[in-house]
Amino acid sequence: MKAVLTFIAALAFGASPLATQGFRGFTPDQFPVPQVDPPVQPAGFAFAIWGVIYLWLILGAGFGVVRRADDESWDEMRLPLIASMAIGAFWIPVANVSPFWATVLIWLMLIGAAAALVQAGADDYWWQRAPIGLFAGWLTAASCVSTGLLLAGYGLVEANTAAVVALGLALAVSLGILTLRRDTPTYAGAVIWGLFGIFATNVWPPNWTILAICALGIAFLSGRLLLDLRR
């Protein structure tokens, strides 16, 4: 039953952009302090990773139903993954109304995805850990970006400081998850992709502080990824 529910949740999650008006980022007027071209926001091309995530999660869950429905190495990760994807199925309509609640929900999604990644078995990397890792990695970047937008959008700090805080938080969370799960390169790859998207946003006019932090973060995670792959 958990295998079937995981597949249903993946389908609902993947269908959410089609069943709603979609999400193209928070609009400036959704915040008390309008966020126009905020430095923490990744470039638009970076969000194309969602298509890969949706498809891979559906394929992985489908494989799990057909070939691993009763496999114990798949069983533990299913409940937190179901919870994360079920929340994700409703995330877009919430995000189009409330950045605050969207941020709360995306952190809950990250908690579920990270728990699923840590609990995933060692078998069937490409069907089990790889798609969950990509999902959790992008949620790590997205949840921290959303937090940075809230900090600046509600006037708690100015936009550049919010971006620095968000990037530091993303790297701290990434390090924690990578410490718990070293054998999933797609996790680090997704975070690196998010950092590259933020780097691209700040190339022109050059925001040297954000560019430097993104470059250091990409270098650190790339080095950590290569080290883990060699083990």
Structural description of this entry:
The protein has 231 residues and is mainly alpha-helical. It contains 9 helices and no strands.
Shape: globular
What fraction, in percent, of the residue positions are helical? over 70%
Q: Compute the gyration radius: what is it?
A: 17 Å
Element order: H for helix, E for strand = HHHHHHHHH
Structural class: mainly alpha
Individual helix count: 9
Low-confidence stretches: none
Key features?
231 residues; mainly alpha; 9 helices
Layout of secondary structure:
Elements: H1 2-19, H2 49-67, H3 72-89, H4 91-95, H5 99-119, H6 129-153, H7 159-180, H8 185-201, H9 208-230
Describe this structure in a few short sentences.
The chain is mostly helical and about 230 residues long. The chain has helices at about 1-20, 50-65, 70-90, 90-95, 100-120, 130-155, 160-180, 185-200, 210-230.
